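Field log, afternoon session.

UNIT: design team B
ACTIVITY: writing a sequence onto a fixed backbone
BACKBONE:
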């Protein structure tokens, strides 16, 4: 309904044209004795509606991760976010082994790193400085051919140790751990600048974005860095771009999967699908 500025109400209409003068004067006299009409009523502008809270699409309380049938242990109270690293790392070490956790995971600000990285993956850049995992050993390699430079298959082997650790983690237990620690993730997401947003919705959105990464077939052509002048690049391998404009325009997260190679990307996607399925399924008894 629109909000009018003025509502003017006309209460009296003096007699019809053609009635005798006497009646007209009588009418005038009656109106002079009557109390004055009240001023026009002006409706005050309606207050703007309160901004609705964002709708939660994937409530974490409804997640029902699959388990191995082991009796559930009473969960200890969660630590403060700033003091949560030991709790998180100990729990992850229980899933993948202490040696793997030490070798592949950063040991400070784990929850904040996870949240910042998840939020950055669909963007153009995802700084390695905030990754929760340590950079993969070795370096990005390219193979030169007569007609150009291509993504080397040697890159696939660099990711093998990390992928084995990823696949060794029981997905149901990983989801259960995430659900238990969720208040810490939500707090870190609010601190990142999203106090009224829901981190689990963002996580599902990012997983779907990564699952939409195109599957590559055949050699992947690259554009090497164009180095001019006497200055030599210390790490030229980080400057390679995809020759295909569509691939080069992809997000940081999708480019990571593309550089890993088709086979490795398929393994990551399989784990993401399983994680997403268990995180969003409904009505499954634990």
């Amino acid at each position: 309904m629109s909000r009018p500025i003025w509502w003017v109400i006309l209460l009296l209409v003096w007699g019809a044209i053609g009635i005798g003068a006497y009646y007209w004067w009588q009418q005038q006299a009656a109106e002079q004795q009557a109390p004055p009409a009240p001023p026009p009523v002006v409706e005050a502008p309606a207050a703007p509606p309160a901004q609705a809270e964002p709708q939660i699409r994937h409530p974490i309380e409804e997640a029902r991760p699959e388990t191995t049938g082991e009796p559930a242990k009473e969960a200890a109270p969660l630590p403060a976010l700033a003091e949560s690293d030991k709790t998180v790392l100990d729990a992850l070490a229980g899933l993948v082994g202490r040696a793997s956790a030490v070798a592949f995971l950063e040991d400070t600000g784990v929850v904040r790193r996870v949240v910042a990285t998840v939020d950055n993956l669909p963007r153009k850049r995802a700084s390695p400085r905030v990754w929760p995992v340590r950079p993969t050993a070795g370096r990005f390699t390219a193979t030169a051919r007569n007609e150009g430079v291509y993504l080397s298959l040697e890159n696939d082997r660099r990711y093998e140790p990390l992928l084995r650790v990823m696949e060794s983690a029981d997905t149901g237990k990983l989801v259960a751990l995430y659900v238990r620690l969720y208040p810490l993730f939500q707090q870190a997401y609010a601190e990142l600048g999203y106090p009224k947003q829901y981190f689990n919705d963002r996580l599902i959105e990012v997983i779907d974005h990564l699952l939409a990464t195109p599957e590559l077939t055949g050699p992947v052509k690259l554009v090497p860095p164009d180095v001019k002048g006497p200055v030599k690049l210390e790490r030229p391998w980080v400057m390679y771009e995809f020759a295909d404009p569509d691939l080069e325009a992809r997000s940081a997260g999708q480019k990571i999967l593309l550089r890993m190679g088709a086979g490795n990307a398929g393994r990551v996607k399989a784990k993401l699908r399983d994680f997403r399925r268990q995180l969003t399924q409904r009505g499954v008894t634990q």
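LOG NOTE: The chain has eleven helices and four strands.
NEXT ACTIVITY: expression trials, pending approval
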